[in-house]
Every structure is written in structure tokens, then in C-alpha cells.
Task: structure prediction
Amino acid sequence: MSAEFMASLIHFLGMMLLIASFWILVSSQIGACIRAYATHSFLLALITAVVAWSQHIEHLIIPALLTLALKTIVIPHVFFRIIRRLGIRKEVESYINIPFSLLLAVLLVFISFYATGEGRFLKPAAFGEFIPLAISTVFFGMLMMTTRKKAISQVLGLLLIENGLFLMAITMTFGMPLLVEMGIFFDVLIAVMIMGLFVFKIRDAFEGIDADDMTVLKG
Amino acid sequence: MTIDKALWMPLIFAFLCLIPSPKRITRLTFIAGAVISAIGAWGFVFGASWSPRVFAFNGNLMMDALSAVFALLITGVGVLSAVYAGGYLFKEGDGSISPLRLRRYACFFHLFLFTMLLTVFSNNLGIMWIAIEGTTLASAFLVNVDDKKSSIEAAWKYLILCSVGISLALFGIILVYYSAIAQAASGESGLLLNWTFLLSKAKQLDPQVLRLAFIFILVGYGTKAGLAPFHSWLPDAHSQAPAPVSALLSGVLLSCATLGILRFHILTKAATGSAFSDTLLIFFGVLSVVVATPFILEQKDYKRLLAYSSVEHMGLAAAGLGFGGALGLYGAILHIMNHAFTKSLLFFSSGHLYYLFHSKEIADVKGLLRKNAFLGIIFFLAALAIAGMPPFSIFVSEFLILSAGFLGGKYISCAVLLLFLALIFVGFLRHASRMTLGGPNTNQSKQSGDWGRPNYHFGKEIKSLGGSEEPPKVERSLLMDSVLVVGMIVILTMGFYIPGPLNALIQAAGRIAGGTIL
Result:
């Protein structure tokens, strides 16, 4: 396996990951959003596997498999069940329209490339090109959490942030210690379950899952 | 008793509480669990066999004086809160909560205690992060016990905001790990996130990266600790949670998050050798006090009043940590401890208030001394204590923090702190006297100008203690009342005299916070 092939494979995966992040942002249907998230996680698992393989770090195989199992299959499945039970097929509602959020997203990508470019702070041994991608994924997640109205979209935004941080850990430090990595997966899974439960509670109490209906508490 | 046993205890009781059984038995298991965990932890801390550090679980868990102080706090307030909840939530009659919900509540309560203990006992910074995220997940259900609109909203905001905040902290931890990996020798890879290991190698870490990491940690854990401007979840969650849970959230959860910041502060200071993290802590500390003040002065809801006061006190503690020096660190740790007990006492009495007046509005609470003299006295004294009145314990620690600031030459911060503390004092005094003194709440008294002579009423009421003319219609729970008395005794004694072993422990904790490498 030549180094040249490896480099182009990594570039390719990075591009696909960025495209998947954009896909999550522009999807106008909640179902498409979840599928885009699953794709994003799938690419993340692939990248983890490639890192593990090229750097001969065996313990990274476990996070790769867990990402594949949990974030690509289990969590999207949970989400689909939730929206089926809630009976929502409607469009994703946002405070800003999709072209504008796309514009913001492009800006965020530029910022993250600029801020981490030229090895300003961080000079990892390999895979340096993933750092701006990871940071822009975190930015995208935050953009989604602040601009989307539906409670479910906010949870997806949180998961997107988590994906970005995972990518960061994988490429900068070749993953956290296995114990910590497992703990984080556990927390994410529990968080999705609990937030899913709360989405139903919100639906029952507020007759809808618009987070901006929740304005009882002030001051 | 070892660290693992201290951690197993709440975990075991969490699942014991889930066993279907009559309410009475669930309550017994629930309270016994908290008491046994506390006895275990206190015995372990004051049994002298561990000093200065004890490790467990391959060095991933560790107890030093700093974590010991926080473990005392968690279990101490935990017992008070569990006993109070035994009277508050397990009452019979109308509005009582179904047994299934109670069992779930008891389970999450112990899980919450477990995650907080894990936070303070973790040496591995990654595990600490997992535990802090765990506290959010465990307590979200405690905030929302009754499924009311406002509780769900509060719990949702709490979940979302704290999770985002915490994810920023994870970013900081990745940065620390990255800077450690760059310097690591082979064979040390398992230790690289261990706080003790990082501290011993602090000089070799990249100071630039650590500074960046500290900013993320401060924002991340600061969200959880309620530092302004990241505090917006706090008043909602604290005001909507049932009183015993508010006490735990405000008294110990915020303190645990502060411990998370403190661990990184020590590390950053050792690595950079500069006052970078001090300055940030002082800035956000003072900002929190300033931001909380208008909300305290103009507050209409007494539980939110207490919540904003937590923002203020966490800010004060952060400023104390930033002022540094032996005095400032000792004062800050003492302040965290005093705040935990005083604020939980106030939240407990807010539970009593809610029973008596069925309202969280300050305006609806009038003539408390006449209606229920016992509660009136406790609430008034506790409000004075939290505002920083001598001889209560908070005064001592505030005084220490401010003197440390003056000694360190931070005159501007200290002047701002003093000014706003004075404003807060006035605000608290005004709210507390409106609630406790004065006539009972009738429509006539508002119009006939009864307000003009509260002192006259006050004098009369003292004589008619027991309130024969207007007996409180609420069932009095001995458990709940005894918690108030115990809390009052604690904050009064701590103002005069800190027991020797405890004082030694806080001093040792202060030395660790000062960066002493044992």
C-alpha cells in the first residue's frame, strides 16, 4: 500500500465528511437529516479504521466498531422510531432560511481552516488536515442547535458536535485512552435515550416539539 | 473503607431503591442509603490511614485532601437532602407522588450522588468528564419530578445547555491530552490523562496549548458551575426542581464543577508559570457577582432569588481561587463549603415555604413569623447568613477571600466585589424582611397601610410563639424540621469554630490548590 494512495484516500474521506456535514445542514426533512447524520458517522468510522490501520494502533479498532454500531445504526434507528411515534414528517423549521445557513456554514469552514492553518497551535504528527474539518463539524453542530426550532434537531446538533470532537481526538491524539472512549460512548448513548424521553414529555406538555414554545421561565 | 467501597455504596442503594415495595420501605432504604454512604465516606476521610494520597483502580481514581473536602460536602448535604426528601416527597395525602415515581426518584437521587462522588474521586481527567456529564443525565429526571410544563422546560434547558458546555470541556481535555502525548515516553500511555502524572510533568507540557485548553475548560465546566455569562440554565433548573434537589444542585453540583475547573487551574498554573488562569478566574468570578446582583435585587420568585445567589457565591469562590495565595485558596474552599450548607438550608426552608403558601412568589409570602415562627426565624437567619452577616460562616470566608484580594494587590476587583456584595446584602435583607416580618397575607392589610408598623407586629408575635390565632394547616414533618435545625447549627458553629481535623483538611486542600506537588 503506497503512501500516495493512503494520502489520497484520506483526502477523499475528509471531503466526503465535509459534504456529509453540509448535507445535515441543508436537509429540509428531519428524516433526511438523520440519514445524513448516519452517513457522517459511517465516514467517521471509516476514518477511524484508516487511522488505526495506517498507524498500527490496534485499540482504535474498538472505537471504530462502536461508532459503526452505535452512531451509524442504533442512534439513527432510535431517532426514526421517535419521529415515527411522534408522527412528524414535517420540514425542519429554522430561524434562518437554508441558503443563509449554508452561507454561514461556508464562513465557518473558512474560519476553522484559517484558525488552525499553518500549525498555529497544533502540530499533530499526522492527519493535520482533519483538524479544521473537526472544528467545522463542531461549529456546524452549534449552528444547528442555535438556529433550529425542533427539539429533535437540537439533539442532532449535539450529536454532530460530539462527532466533531471524536474526529478531533482520533486525528490529533489517535483516540483517547480506551476506558475514556468507552465512557464517552456510554454517556452519548444514555444522553440520547434521556433526551428522547424528554422529547415525548415536551410533546405531551406543549402539544408540539418546538423548543421556542418553551418560554414559561424568565428573569 | 476504600475509594471503591465509597463509590459502590450509592450505586448499590440506587438499585435497591428500585425494588417494588411499600412506600415506607422505599423511604427507609432511600434514607438509609444516603446515611450509610455518608458514614462510609466520612469514616474513610477522617480515618488517618490514607494521607496524603490514595489511589485505586489503576490510578484512575485518587483521593487527596481536595477531593476529601468535596466528598464530605457531597455526602453531608446528601444526607440532609435525603432526610428532607423523606418528609417532603414521601408525604401521604393529596398531591402525593405515585410509588413508581418515588422509586425512580430515589434511584436517580443515589445515581446523582454516585456520579458526583466519581467526579471528585477521579484522577483520570477523562473519567472526570464522563462523571460530570453523568451528573447532568442523572439529575435531569430529578429536576422534572412532576411533569409540569415549567419543569419540563427547565429540565430540557438544563440538559441541552450543560451538554453543550461539557462538550467544550471535552475539547479542552483533548488539547491537554495532545500536549501530554507530544512529551510522552513509551510505556506511559496509560497515565497520560492522570492528573497526578500530568502535574508531575507539568513543566514539559506546551504552555500555549494548555492556555487554550484552560479557556475551553473554564467555559465548559463554568457552564455547569453557574459562572456568568453561562449561567442561564441555573435559575430555571433550581427553581423548578423540588426543594431537596435544588439544595443538592446548588450546594454540591456547582461545587463539583468548580473542582473540575480547579484541577485544570492547578495544572495550567504549574505548566505556564503565569497568572493567566488566575486572571480569567477573577474576571469571570467578578462578572458573576455583578451579573447576579440586579436579578437578586429585582427578583419576584424566592427560589430564583436563591438560584441567582448561587451564581453570586460561585463567582466569589472563583474569584477567591484566582486571588490565590494560601489565604485566598483556603478562603475559597471554605467558602464553597459554607455556601453548600447555607444555601441548602435556604432551599430546604423554601420547601417549607412552598407548603405553607402554595406559591413561589415573594409577594405572596407575608408575615411568615406570625404564621410559623419556627420557620420564620430559621429562614430569616439563613437569609442573613447567605448575605454575609457575621457571625455566620459565610462572612468568615467572604472576609478571607477579600483580604486575599487586597493582599494580592487586586484592588479594583476587590472594590467591585465589595460594592456589589453590599448591594446584594441590602437586597437580601429587603426580601427577607418583607417575607418574614409584617402582617399576615390578607387583602385588607395591603390597603389599610398595615405595612407602616411591622415592628409593632414583630414585637407581639415573639410573645405569641406557636401561633395560636392562626395555626398552620400543614402537616408538620419532624424529619423536615430536624433538617432545618441541624443545618442552622452547622452554619452557626462553622462561623465560630471549625473543628480541628476539618480545618487541617481544608488547609491541606488549599496547599494542593496552591500547586504543592506532594
Q: What stands out?
A: Chain B touches chain A through 51 residues (CB under 8 Å). Confidence is low (pLDDT under 50) at residues 443-473 of chain B. The first helix of chain B runs from residue 3 to 16. Chain B has one domain: 3-513.
